[in-house]
Amino acid sequence: MNDPRQKALETLAFFDQNGYIPFRKVEIAISTLSSIGRRFYMNLVMETLRKRIQIDYILNQFLKKPEKLPAPVMNALRLGVTQLFYMDSVPEFAAIHSSVELLKAKSFKKLVNAVLRKISKLETPLPEQPIWLKYSHPKWLVDYWEEIEWINPLEELLSYNQQPPLQVYSIPKGEYHLLDEKGYIYDKSDFSDCIIVLEKGEPISSLKRIDELEYIVNEYFRCPVIKPENSSLALLSEKPWLFHTISKEELLKSANELKKELSNRIANIEEFVYLSNTLTLEENTQLLAPLKEFVPVPLDDFMIRYNLRGTWDGYGYWLLPPNSPRPGYIARMRRK
């Protein structure tokens, strides 16, 4: 079975049951697809997850009791809306027909066909919308971020979260010529000697996919870098299933666990860099403020060297694109 749409439906079913999508699951799903099929599958799954809040809002205008529909039917409808509104390369007929063909029951085929045909006639699916719906984010999260003075402008962050993450790679300086020889389309990063791959060519063994923010932090600092497990709200574009699984309660739980973890990890060190993959007060500013035996150390030289700009909160910097490779938080703390 080499239909990327059917594999996308199966992946969404896995998410509904488990609340996440492991990259191993994706690798298995795309292993039998062509390179074009793989790209289509990845785009379809990730866009459906990124836009799901907006998609469900649209669907609810045409469904009487969406909560009563079987999960495969609802996901087939979501995949159809994604192709209609968020994938310009898919013709309207193909978006509708392919979604109908994902289902076996004749009654549900008719339902999906009728609903998607009505939706396809909408000139503007969301004419007037609050900011959380415009950018397909949970309302509670947008309300929460609006209260954080260091996340500004907020709309830039929300827009960034709805875009596929850049594919950043490192390569030894003496091998840049291989990129042209192997047919890569790429651009240079604004923040390091890494490259942004726009289209891959033939394999290059020394080309390594990286987290650029982590890469430059590890390149610059010699003291321990603490990158803890947290709510990962800075990685929404990379892990869009988090839009639908993270709650305020989970956030607070993560913060409490992080306090214990950090206390243990800094017990016997004189200085550390805190690199956070989330954008919450509880897991950043309010986590570092009680560390009375440590003082924050300015990061001016680091920020200048890597062309970074962020907002200082008294302990560290809140980092937001386009002034950083990705969202995050960084602080340097030294024992008194």
Can you describe this structure?
- A hairpin with a 6-residue loop joins strand 2 and strand 3.
- The mean pLDDT is 93.
- This protein has two domains: 117 residues, Orthogonal Bundle (N-utilizing Substance Protein B Homolog, Chain A), CATH 1.10.940.10; 124 residues, Rossmann fold (3-Layer(aba) Sandwich), CATH 3.40.50.
- Helix 1 packs parallel to helix 3 and helix 4 crosses helix 5.
- The chain has 336 residues and is an alpha+beta fold.
Quick overview of this protein structure:
By secondary structure, this protein is α+β, with helices and mostly antiparallel strands. It has 15 helices and ten strands.
